[in-house]
Amino acid sequence: MIKTHIPEDNILSRVTPQRTRALLEQCVQANFNSIRVWGGGYYPDDFFFDICDELGLVVWQDFMFACANYHLTPEFEENIKAEFVDNITRLRSHPSLGLWCGNNEMEMFQSVSEYDGTPKTRSDYIRMFEHILPEILREYDPDTFYWPASPSSGGGFDEPNDPNRGDVHYWEVWHGNVPFTEYRKYYFRYASEFGFQSFPCKKTIYSFALPEDCNIFSRVMERHQRNDGANGKIMAYLAQTYLYPTEFDTLLYASQLLQAEAIRYGVEHWRRNRGRCMGAIYWQLNDIWPVASWASIDYFGRWKTLHYYAKRFFAPLMISCEETGETTDRNSIILQPSPIKTKAHLNVANETREAVDVTVRWALRNSSSAVLQQGESSLTVPNLTSVWLEEIDFNGTDYLENYFSYELWKDGEQCSCGTVLFTAPKHYHFLNPDLQWHVEGDTIFVTAQAYAKSVEIECDEEDLVLSDNFFDMNAGTVGIKVLSGTPRRLRLRSVYDIR
């Protein structure tokens, strides 16, 4: 349950203890238990580790080597030895330090001859990360675990990125353009890097763009993009999932939903397979400037949709569903029509230290949220494990009109919930939920007249932090706590409004 931390600003003097604390506290709010410091940035200040010590965040600390070849000369060797000793002795006493990692992606790219590697750079690599650095760690910090690279199967160019050993950086979803349903084909031992992009919200875009620039293919929008050609990539993925948004602000909303759904799809799958897969670190936590990127918190500290989703899919107690439907059972809707399998397979993950007694409630509903079929199960979930329930077969259901909802209850309180469709959202027959809101004290009450997916509560006047946002709801009323800010002149929308 980790994110990758990158430098918080291009101008390092802007990074203050207060700013870093706010960022790390937002990690805790989203149920993170660890944070990876990426090797392409810089070694954090002492206050970063002080705050992690206080908050209970375990740090995966890369040494600052990434995505390159290094030529080892006597002078450079002395330089890096001094760098290693300085940072190891500075950080070794922090209880939050959980792991030293030699570098980011250098072993993987050397093994496939990226970066114009040569026999000399390969031998220099082995000396740096499998001799010099381990020897220094044995002298100065023998008790902290060392991993030679990320990804790696243990070093020596022995099939880094092997899905059956060590850790994996998986980028076929996004860079490889495959649909995010592909995540379910892989049962990595540790997914240490994967990601998906989205645009920031309109407030952030207006910090660098004029109204006439608000087209994702304008020069300004393409310049504020970390990945060449990625604005078009977002649109290609969006076309697989949602209707085409006709307004710029709706496109921003849809892109953030797309990012959040993609990462949720992977993380929930890996949590369901706990024991085989023991960790997931998505790329990335934060932004170094206002930009379209893989981050879940933007440059100004605003939560993107993904951060709210992370709070749910990283919850210590979580229920999730492995659904079978049109997107998993048929490659293309233009093929000869055939019956579609529609099934739901629920799983409860327990990342706490104690066994828990829980109740699972589920229902097959139509688009107005009327219950067509329902069930309930009570079970005990052992600590630090996940448990499958019996698969439910809905074959023959109208998968364009019906959806599946599920809830997890403990001690009389709902602690996790969700819904799934059996088709892409763009093809589901949503009704207008006619979303309404009112505020009582520190609670926003949202009412829907029909099923509403990915409901956003938005405030133009100030940035709110809520107990939940971008949530699914059945017809009815839900209460959302305001954690920060004053809710005024709110706007609500859902997937129904992507059109």
Structure characterization notes:
This protein is an alpha/beta fold and 499 residues long. It folds into three domains: 2-313, Glycosidases (TIM Barrel, Alpha-Beta Barrel); 317-429, Immunoglobulin-like; 431-499, Sandwich (Immunoglobulin-like). It has helices spanning 17-29, 46-55, 74-91, 106-111, 119-140, 202-205, 219-223, 230-241, 248-272, 305-313, 326-329, and strands at residues 2-5, 34-37, 58-62, 97-101, 145-147, 168-169, 191-195, 280-283, 317-324, 343-350, 356-366, 371-381, 385-388, 392-393, 402-410, 413-421, 436-440, 443-448, 452-459, 465-466, 471-473, 476-484, 490-493. An eight-stranded parallel sheet has the order 5-4-3-2-1-8-7-6, covered by helices on one side. Strands 9, 10, 13 and 14 form a four-stranded antiparallel sheet that branches. α3 (74-91) packs parallel to α5 and α9 (248-272) runs parallel beside α10. The longest helix is centred in the middle third of the chain and has 25 residues, at 248-272.
How are the SSEs placed, and which strands pair?
Elements lengths: L1 E4 L11 H13 L4 E4 L8 H10 L2 E5 L11 H18 L5 E5 L4 H6 L7 H22 L4 E3 L20 E2 L21 E5 L6 H4 L13 H5 L6 H12 L6 H25 L7 E4 L21 H9 L3 E8 L1 H4 L13 E8 L5 E11 L4 E11 L3 E4 L3 E2 L8 E9 L2 E9 L14 E5 L2 E6 L3 E8 L5 E2 L4 E3 L2 E9 L5 E4 L6
Parallel strand pairs: 1-2, 1-8, 2-3, 3-4, 4-5, 6-7, 7-8
Antiparallel strand pairs: 9-10, 10-13, 10-14, 11-12, 11-15, 15-16, 17-18, 18-22, 19-21, 19-23, 20-22
Helix pairs in contact: 1-2, 3-5, 9-10
